Amino acid sequence: MSRTKRGPEEAKTEEPAADSGRRTSPLPPDADLNGSTLQMGFLTSNTAAPLQPRRSATTMAAGAFYLPKESKKRPLGEDAHFIFPEGQTIGVADGVGAWSFHGVDAGKYSRMLMSKAEASARSQAGGGGGVNPMKALTDAYAGTNVLGSSTACILTLTDDGVISAVNVGDSGLAIVRAGSVEYKSPVQQREFNYPFQLGRGIWSDRPAVAARIKVEVRPGDVIVMATDGLFDNVKDELVAELVGGGADAPGKVAERLAKEALKIAKSKDVETPIALEARKAGIEYSGGKYDDITVIVAYIEAAADQSGTIAVNLGT
Length: 316
Description:
It is a single chain. The chain is an alpha+beta fold. It has a domain at 26-227 and 291-302: Phosphatase 2c, domain 1 (4-Layer Sandwich). It has six helices and 15 strands. The chain has helices spanning 106-126, 133-143, 228-231, 236-243, 250-265, 273-280, and strands at 36-39, 42-46, 58-67, 79-84, 89-95, 149-157, 162-168, 172-177, 180-184, 189-191, 194-195, 198-199, 211-216, 222-226, 293-302. The strands form three sheets. It has a seven-stranded antiparallel β-sheet. Strands 4, 5, 6, 7, 12 and 13 form a six-stranded antiparallel β-sheet that branches. Strand 10 (189-191) and strand 11 (194-195) form a beta hairpin. It starts with 35 loop residues before the first strand and ends in a 14-residue tail after the last strand. Belongs to the PP2C family. This is Protein phosphatase.
């Protein structure tokens, strides 16, 4: 069985915008890597709490770690992510690898998609309102004019202590509470290893297919948002165990999760979530799946008001 994620790219595709074929940089020209460093093949991001005070009982502090697959041709891999702390918004995307059979770098699509999503979130927050993740996804889709397709997940923490998220495909999020996974977003796929995906192919999906998620959170919860490089390889129980009790910085926890996923991905005999799903589909499969791995870890914390007093909600 091929371990490359399937996509609709075997069908006819729409032509990309005229300038897209001339790009030579692996990053789109308007990509914003503020707060990130590209180092030794790892794209890491660490953020503190938001820079501006929010009238909310909760806030979110996030960090990320990225392990691209080893590739001389595509050293940046096909995943992308962003963290926008001022808007309490995060996102991940996973370019569909099967495009490589047609000479297309799906990483260009996922990186542009996340760059446009962050730009939309910043524009929304700059207008004085909250961030609508569905609008961010829709704006990003409309503004991404290169060939390819990608899964995507975008999440924002609202002022009333609810995470509002949209998800397309098999990237997603989990909420760890009191040492166990309290919630996990469902995978969207047509069949095994064929996820819903945004893209320019005529058989690709549009933002309207996105699952819309709302979950109430509270201080102490930990959000793990990731591409399938994590969730295909690491069981929920191990995710919760590796998250721990919140003593480490979120970026360090993201690194721990990503490195564990990589170790499992290279194993041929360990029991993994993707092996279990393959067998359910009648496919013989064992071990992990080697893939790009992006993990964002976000701590939900009690917010301080402008005087520095911690806001505590005593309700149940």
